[in-house]
């Protein structure tokens, strides 16, 4: 059973500008909690099917997930799927034109894969809503300031 939360923000930049910021994976550590590094291992411009490496810091413990760009639709949608021995994580970015700007929805889902991950589930459930909301706010502020 996966846990999923979303947060929606209005950003005064065009979907093209917001998408360009998100599509530059090196920006992820600037706004995504726990993210130390997010890299496309396939090389070239991002596209559906590209392999990813996600390095994160969870309470002082540095870990790595393997991933894939599951969807990549210019100026409207990006979906990343990542996995390690404990969790499967899916993050989605949905963009819609809204007046002169963009309606941006950030969705994160986490599915426990191990016994230990299932034990940690209550902590994840308790902290994830504020984390997703905070990350979306941080992203919106970063994009607004560029």
Give descriptors for this structure:
146 residues, alpha+beta, Alpha-D-Glucose-1,6-Bisphosphate, Chain A, domain 4, 7-stranded antiparallel sheet, globular
Based on the coordinates given, report the CATH architecture. Answer: 2-Layer Sandwich
Strand content: over 45%
Number of domains: 1
User: In which order are the strands of the major sheet placed?
Assistant: 1-7-6-5-4-3-2
Query: Rg to the nearest angstrom?
Result: 15 Å
CATH superfamily: START domain
| H and E string | EHHEEEEEEH
Distance between the first and last residues' Cα: 38 Å
Low-confidence stretches: none
Number of strands: 7
**Would you tell me the overall average pLDDT?**
96
Could you explain the architecture of this structure?
This protein is α+β, with helices and mostly antiparallel strands and 146 residues long. It has one domain (3-144): 2-Layer Sandwich (Alpha-D-Glucose-1,6-Bisphosphate, Chain A, domain 4), CATH 3.30.530.20. The protein has helices at 15-23, 28-31, 115-144; strands at residues 3-11, 35-40, 51-58, 61-73, 77-83, 87-98, 101-112. A seven-stranded antiparallel beta sheet has the order 1-7-6-5-4-3-2. The protein is globular, with a radius of gyration of 15 Å. 23% of the residues are buried.
Strand-helix topology:
Elements: E1 3-11, H1 15-23, H2 28-31, E2 35-40, E3 51-58, E4 61-73, E5 77-83, E6 87-98, E7 101-112, H3 115-144
Antiparallel strand pairs: 1-7, 2-3, 3-4, 4-5, 5-6, 6-7
């Amino acid at each position: 059973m996966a846990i999923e939360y979303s947060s929606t923000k209005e950003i005064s930049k065009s979907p093209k500008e917001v998408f360009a910021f998100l599509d530059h994976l090196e920006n992820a550590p600037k706004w995504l909690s726990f993210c130390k590094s997010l890299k496309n291992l396939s090389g070239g411009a991002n596209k559906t099917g590209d392999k990813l490496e996600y390095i994160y810091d969870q309470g002082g413990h540095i870990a790595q997930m393997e991933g894939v760009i599951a969807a990549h639709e210019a100026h409207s949608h990006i979906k990343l799927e990542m996995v390690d021995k404990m969790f499967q994580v899916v993050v989605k970015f949905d963009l819609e034109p809204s007046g002169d700007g963009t309606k941006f929805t950030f969705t994160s889902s986490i599915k426990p894969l191990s016994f230990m991950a299932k034990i940690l589930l209550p902590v994840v459930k308790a902290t994830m809503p504020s984390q997703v909301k905070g990350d979306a706010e941080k992203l919106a502020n970063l994009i607004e300031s560029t």
